[in-house]
């Protein structure tokens, strides 16, 4: 089976400072892969480079195709989708308009669009209730749901999630991770970047630990969860 | 001032204000989508009026050469950029949209200029001719520096205005022109005379405001434009290209400038450099709207028209001074309300 995403020796820098140094990783179709690591390890930088928002060196192959030649919009066209840490919603527009624009790259027929929209509303009933409300009036959890829903409108093949649990109440965090796990059943592959290492590893199939721009450890998520060294460093001691 | 004079000045002010509304909306539209304060906007309106004047006197308008020059330069610049980035295969499709398409009204104009045309055709031709200038100038001047700070974009816009005014002098000459009124009829309403021309101006600006509203509220492209204005990164992540939305914004704004030019042509003599002052007054309206709000911008521009009308009665030498002095209280109020907004956001 060929990997959905194959990253080889990725370097991303801001001027002379390299924030990501020689990262290699791969994601198989239908997998949830997580990248955990402390603040400033280069996780967000890496995602930005994968999406084409930042220039990078190294190879990124997606469905066997070289991504480095494509710009952000062309990557979106190929069903690669980033839900950034800041959500980047259209704050002064309604929830319904945000979802409509999520499907912008797909040029759906009207019936397909309605079907897609109904599926997203079914997954996030709260969004259906608030469809006429402006996005910037939503609560933190609802915003994250809108960001996820907007991404799902484009039926992504690979979803890049940047800290989806950041700043959310524990109850909502649990809900978000349940949704992420359910997406796998719908055939979406996910690259999940998280500081909440335990929740991320419990959801994911495979994990990478990023430290100061380099991969320090990697392995099946269950094994990483049982690694005593990682436990103390990132998971807040033995459970 | 008697009530009768006040009424006449009011009607006059509303008519001028309605034209400023169109220009101000165009300025806000371009700024919100591309962050460019498009200083040469008034120039586009003035060029439309001059084009129409030339067509009405049976001459070939200089706009023909202006558009040809700008389209040629844009094609060269973009072709060079595409070759350098290894996308030479995209040159033909670019040329079709950004060179062949703008050249259609140019060729039409060359073929028809000396013939006797109905006024409606002349108006349409003049607007069509100016229409491509917005998107072309966007590609030529702003696209390569799209991520530059607002100030850099503004400086380029000012430079572009001087370049256009220079080209205007070459292609239109130093004389002023006035176009024939779209209608000579005069009506008496509520004890004051109102020209059909003034009513047409107000009607046109209301219609175009309505169309803009429908466009932004009900079309995918309109929503994509709003999305770009609200959040550029978010829009890109949805696959909305800021370059494309920028071009659409410039195209729509060109249309507004063209209509404004057609409407102002019969009201005042237009020279090759009249556009600047014209755009600057509309800009005052746009500032009142904070360069974001369309309804407040429209009200602001209307107010500028009224202010100008009354100021010119009071002391016509000082009418510009009055209008631009009005910026001071507006900016004060803006900065005070902006400061309180920022505090609210910090608390969040």
Automatic annotation (TrEMBL), chain A:
Pfam families in UniProt: ABC_tran
Annotated ranges, domain ABC transporter: 5-237
GO molecular function terms noted in the UniProt entry: ATP binding
Keywords: Amino-acid transport, ATP-binding, Nucleotide-binding, Transport
Transferase recorded as keyword: no
Family note: Belongs to the ABC transporter superfamily.
Designated name of the protein: ABC transporter ATP-binding protein
Natural source organism: Neorhizobium turbinariae
UniProtKB/TrEMBL annotation, chain B:
Topology in the lipid bilayer: Multi-pass membrane protein
Localization, UniProt: Cell membrane
Lineage: Bacteria, Pseudomonadati, Pseudomonadota, Alphaproteobacteria, Hyphomicrobiales
UniProt family annotation: Belongs to the binding-protein-dependent transport system permease family. LivHM subfamily.
Protein source organism: Neorhizobium turbinariae
Membrane-spanning intervals of the chain: 6-30, 62-83, 95-113, 119-138, 150-173, 193-216, 248-272, 278-305
The protein's name: Branched-chain amino acid ABC transporter permease
InterPro entries: ABC_transp_permease, BCAA_transport_permease
CDD domains in UniProt: TM_PBP1_LivH_like
Coiled-coil zones: none
Keywords: Amino-acid transport, Cell membrane, Membrane, Transmembrane, Transmembrane helix, Transport
């Amino acid at each position: 089976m060929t990997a959905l995403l194959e990253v080889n020796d990725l370097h991303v820098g801001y001027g002379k400072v390299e924030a990501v140094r020689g990262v290699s990783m791969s994601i198989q179709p239908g997998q949830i892969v997580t990248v955990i690591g402390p603040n400033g390890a280069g996780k967000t930088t890496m995602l930005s480079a994968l999406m084409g928002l930042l220039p990078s060196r190294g190879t990124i192959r997606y469905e066997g195709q070289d991504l480095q030649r494509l710009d952000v919009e062309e990557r979106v066209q190929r069903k690669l989708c980033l839900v950034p840490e800041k959500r980047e919603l259209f704050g002064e527009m309604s929830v319904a308009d945000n979802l409509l624009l999520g499907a912008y790259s797909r040029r759906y027929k009207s019936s397909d669009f309605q079907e897609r929209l109904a599926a997203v509303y079914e997954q996030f009933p709260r969004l259906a209730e608030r469809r006429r409300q402006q996005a910037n009036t939503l609560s933190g959890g609802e915003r994250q749901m809108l960001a996820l829903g907007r991404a799902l409108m484009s039926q992504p093949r690979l979803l890049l999630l940047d800290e989806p649990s950041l700043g959310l109440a524990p109850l909502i965090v649990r809900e978000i991770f349940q949704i992420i796990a359910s997406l796998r059943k719908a055939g979406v592959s996910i690259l999940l970047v998280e500081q909440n290492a335990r929740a991320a590893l419990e959801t994911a199939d495979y994990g990478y630990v990023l430290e100061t721009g380099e991969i320090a450890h990697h392995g099946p998520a269950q094994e990483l969860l049982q690694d005593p060294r990682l436990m103390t460093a990132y998971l807040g001691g033995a459970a | 001032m008697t009530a009768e004079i006040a009424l006449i000045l009011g009607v006059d002010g509303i008519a001028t204000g309605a034209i400023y509304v169109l220009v101000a909306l165009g300025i806000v539209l371009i700024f919100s989508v591309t962050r460019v304060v498009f200083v040469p906007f008034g120039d586009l309106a003035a060029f439309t009026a001059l084009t129409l004047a030339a067509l009405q006197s049976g001459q070939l308008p200089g706009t023909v050469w202006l558009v040809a020059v700008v389209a040629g330069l844009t094609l060269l610049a973009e072709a060079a950029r595409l070759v350098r980035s290894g996308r030479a295969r995209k040159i033909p499709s670019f040329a079709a949209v950004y060179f062949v398409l703008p050249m259609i009204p140019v060729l039409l104009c060359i073929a028809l200029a000396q013939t006797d045309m109905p006024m409606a055709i002349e108006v349409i031709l003049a607007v069509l001719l100016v229409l491509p200038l917005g998107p072309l100038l966007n590609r030529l001047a702003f696209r390569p520096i799209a991520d530059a700070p607002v100030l850099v974009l503004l400086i380029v816009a000012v430079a572009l205005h001087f370049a256009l005014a220079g080209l205007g002098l070459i292609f239109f000459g130093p004389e002023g022109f006035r176009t024939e009124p779209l209608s000579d009829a005069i009506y008496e309403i509520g004890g004051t005379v109102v020209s059909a021309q003034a009513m047409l101006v107000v009607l046109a600006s209301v219609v175009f405001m309505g169309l803009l509203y429908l466009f932004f509220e009900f079309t995918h492209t309109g929503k994509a434009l709003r999305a770009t204005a609200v959040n550029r990164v978010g829009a890109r992540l949805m696959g909305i290209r800021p370059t494309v939305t920028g071009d659409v914004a410039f195209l729509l704004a060109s249309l507004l400038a063209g209509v404004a030019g057609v409407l102002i042509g019969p009201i005042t003599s237009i020279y090759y450099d009249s556009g600047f002052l014209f755009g600057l007054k509309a800009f005052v309206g746009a500032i009142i709207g904070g360069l974001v709000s369309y309804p407040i911008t429209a009200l602001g521009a209307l107010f500028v028209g009224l202010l100008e009308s009354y100021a010119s009665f009071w002391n016509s030498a000082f009418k510009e001074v009055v209008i631009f002095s009005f910026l001071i209280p507006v900016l004060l109020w803006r900065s005070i309300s902006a400061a309180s907004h920022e505090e609210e956001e910090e608390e969040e």
